[in-house]
Amino acid sequence: MTKKSLIVAGFLLFGGGALFSGLLNSCEKAHAADETRYEFPDIFDIRYTPDTLHRCTGWFTDAGSWMGFTVPEQENGIKVNGFCGPFSLDMNRRQWIAASAVEASKSDGSGLSVDSSCYYPGELRLIMKSPTGDVKERLNFIDDKLALLSVENEGDVPLVFTGKDWSKDVKLRMNENSIMAEHPSGEVFVITFRPDVDLKVTDGNYIATAPKRKNEYIGLSFFYNEKDVAPGIDKALATITNPEPALEKNAERWDGYLKKTLRDDMKPEYDRIAVKAITTLISNHRTARRGLLHDGIIPSHAVGYFVGLWAWDSWRFSAGAAKFDPELAKNNIRAMFDYQQPDGMIIDCIYTDPAENNARDSKPPLVCWAVDEIYNNTADTAFVAEMYPQLLSYYKWWYAKRDHDRNGMCEYGSTDGTLEAAAWESGMDNAIRFDDVKMLKNDGYEDAWSMDQESVDLNAYLAMECRLLKKFAGILGKKFDGPDYADKVADYFFDGDNGFFFDRRLADRSFVSQPGCEAYTALWTGIARPEQVNAMMPQLQDTTKFSTYIPFPTIAADNPKYNPRGYWRGPIWLDQTYFAINGLRQYGYGDLADKYTEQVFDRLDGLQQKAPIHENYDAHTGARLKAPHFSWAASHLILLYNEYKKK
Predict the structure, then answer these.
(1) Which residue of 17, 173, 261, 355 has the smallest Cβ count within 10 Å?
(2) pLDDT tens across 471-482, in order?
(3) How many CA atoms lie within 13 A of 40 on its CB side?
(4) pTM of the model
(5) Closest-CA residue to 63 (of 240, 214, 246, 334)
(6) Contact between 100 and 91 (Cβ < 8 Å)
(7) In a 3-state reduction of DSSP, which class is residue 47?
(8) DSSP category for residue 13
(9) How far apart are the two ends of the chain, measured CA to CA in Å?
């Protein structure tokens, strides 16, 4: 897709071996005509200088790396002339390796100070002013272990580089023309300079004096496996000696992400939302490490407890990434199935340390949807064939161990009999509909417990999984041999008196009459009959219930238990909002679906500006809540963008 750039006058990047040409006053004016990413300056604000008092809420990271960087703040009084970091993004050791591992200065001592910075998709920029010529830096990830720092030095005074505020646990040593920063955990950060840079280590730091030249290239490598260090340093040296091929590959990768997603018929501000969502997912990509046996997408790199893989989160992330990075989407699914249990169960979450994994519960079954999204974007029958036996085994597990009375309608539950784990299995931990549930032991198994309540969303998901498994079986020439209750779900869970879908209690089959987001799944999965959807419309369009400022909260806004910041008791979760909007579109309410999409895109706080995409939002104000840089919300923003019809 070719778009007219929104940026006026700019740089030509890496033409004839030069890093920048031309001198501008702001990073935001940088532009390369052939790269789509330069139409989206300051996609996020990640200004943060280590040791400032406020909390860091996001890093620049890419290509599955386990390290991240920020740009220095310009107003906090702590001076850093370089990108801040790296920061170790592992859940078990989230720590700044240095305030700035590579800080620039002029060899004559003339002043240098940060003037401006910019975050483009897949790239950081920094401009520093000096009386003897400006210094401009660019940071790109070449792969998961190597980032390339490109430095242009205007003027005739050579540059000197050193580290600032190394972690007290880090020990520095030289290895030829590399600086090794070694941590007791086994992580090693390496700075590789060109062979003609004069390098010394002294007093717990290093000094690197470059010869007089305009363009300097420095390799920043991060290792957590000793066997990767030597070949990694060799790659860094080869890259800084000949940087253009690696930078071209980075540009092609990011241009591919964006061009596969962006549409010619969308508002620029909606394009920006899609680009932010892509950047969020790629920033949360992590390569295989220890207990994570395949690459995957974590919920949020900005929050330590989210550095792992969760089941239904992963299905959503794969659906969001299927169009622009299908290989990552496939591996993200494989990573969860690496831990499939002998009985077919997919466990709740996995981490780099398998001792931290949670197998007390599963998560709602949406994985066939994710596989189908990948298939629809790739026509990869080999992947369908690879996954089909595992998908079918997981599907059958629900009916074996989560159907207490064997009536074909399943319940959320747990392996240990606790309500806590059963609530986790629903994915809606503190939902109002579960306030009065109890746990029941399922006959024939020591590890199978159910809530005393059948859930409409669970059975709607299973109905869709059934439909898709039949599709996959047809593609592969197989016979589907799983349970099939799909045609019974809609009528079973629809309360005609109240015109809404509800959970049902096992004891007396009464409805749990708390109108909430679980009803949206009947529309999204396509199981609802048109007359049932029509009966729901007065409540779905009621501004006191579900048609709020940001549409489709997790519980009706007039419920006495509604809490605008109550996690699953009121706020907007964009997956649920997407289910409702997509469901309306399926049942012929396309104009209404567009209207609600516009409310999401136009009203969520900071979405069109520099703010990160958050875990959830206030339904009445659009205020950001909970975790920033959240993959779940990003995935569904991509899906909303793809399906929006208006120009």
Answers:
(1) 355
(2) 999 999 999 999
(3) 30
(4) 0.95
(5) 246
(6) no
(7) strand
(8) P
(9) 16
